[in-house]
Amino acid sequence: MSIHIGKSPIAYRKGSERKMATTDSLVQISDLRKEYKMGETTVHALRGISLDVAEGEFVAILGQSGSGKTTLLNMISALDTPTSGEVSVQGSVISSMKRDERTRFRRSSIGLVFQFYNLFPTLTALENVEIGIAMKIKHKEEMRNRASKYLELVGILDKANSYPSQMSGGEQQRVAIARGLAKEPPILVLDEPTGNLDAETSEVIWELLHTLNKQTGTTVIAVTHQTSVSKLADRSVFLRSGLIYGISAKNEGE
Ligand SMILES: Nc1ncnc2c1ncn2[C@@H]1O[C@H](COP(=O)(O)OP(=O)(O)OP(=O)(O)O)[C@@H](O)[C@H]1O
Ligand SMILES: [Mg+2]
């Protein structure tokens, strides 16, 4: 059966198999649970998370240490699979994909940025961005142009030939963001991208992410401890003990 509401095609299948998403949300998460078995004990890292993220949205995920933020990001970026529940991205159910299928999905559809940048120390800024798109672009000049374009977008093209050790933390994180964006993924996923930076540099990075989100239309899902990010994000999702206990929209209550 297939129904159309507005512009969004909706497809239903019998049983649990559902290859098509039911709305035009880019990410759909339903009743997501993740348990880690630690010997005799079970850690309930996620205890039933349901959340939809629209295309082009900037969503901040906040919560205390251990509340499940990284676990949730790992499910959205197909780094890990849930114990139960479902995550779909662009209509594909990624939570039930096999490992190599998940790797392929992640390489093509997710830009990942971590707290400690994860740059290769022996590669320059430009080469670090290039390596992120080498799987996608084979032509060397095209790859170089694309990498340069994103270094310019994050404002550090002048550091293209510098090595990570020759750059500040904020500059290294910009390279990591450029690398995440360069493959032009539908979703940029960031786990505490400013956790290692001073307050002023953090603010610059969040402003940059906000601008990039609006300029490129890339959907941004970012974990942070900084409550000030809520002022920039379209929505802020607050986690506690593996559950959502609040969602606030930008400018709410102002
Ligand atoms: N691989 C694992 N094995 C066992 N337990 C885990 C594993 N990963 C996470 N956990 C547990 O799951 C819970 C959620 O962890 P998670 O890393 O998602 O928290 P977080 O919100 O990202 O915390 P932080 O702000 O410190 O990064 C914690 O209790 C943690 O100890
Ligand atoms: Mg974490």
Describe this structure in words.
- With 254 residues, this protein is α/β, with parallel strands linked by helices.
- It has one domain: 3-Layer(aba) Sandwich (Rossmann fold), CATH 3.40.50.
- Helices cover 29% and strands 30% of the residues.
- It has helices spanning 69-76, 99-109, 125-133, 140-153, 169-182, 199-216; strands at residues 2-5, 8-11, 25-38, 41-54, 58-63, 84-89, 92-93, 110-113, 187-191, 219-223, 235-240, 243-249.
- A hairpin with a 2-residue loop joins β3 and β4.
- α3 packs across α4 (140-153), α3 (125-133) packs parallel to α5 and α5 (169-182) runs parallel beside α6.
- The radius of gyration is 19 Å and the shape is globular.
- The termini are far apart.
- Residues 1-22 have low confidence and may be disordered.
- The structure holds adenosine-5'-triphosphate (ATP) and magnesium ion.
Short note summarizing the structure:
With 254 residues, this protein is of the alpha/beta class. 29% of the residues lie in helices and 30% in strands.
Which blocks of ≥5 consecutive residues have pLDDT under 50? 1-22
Q: Average pLDDT, to the nearest integer?
A: 89
Number of E strands:
12
- The CATH class turns out to be Alpha Beta
What is the CATH topology classification name? Rossmann fold
Helical content class: 25-40%
What is the helix/strand order? EEEEEHEEHEHHHEHEEE
Taking Cα atoms only, what radius of gyration do you get, to the nearest Å?
A: 19 Å
Give the CATH H-level superfamily. Answer: P-loop containing nucleotide triphosphate hydrolases
Give the neighbour order of strands across the main sheet: 8-9-10-5-11-12
Net shape: globular
How much of the sequence lies in strands comes to: 25-35%
CATH architecture: 3-Layer(aba) Sandwich
Count of distinct structural domains: 1
Instruction: Give the cofactors and ligands.
Output: adenosine-5'-triphosphate, magnesium ion
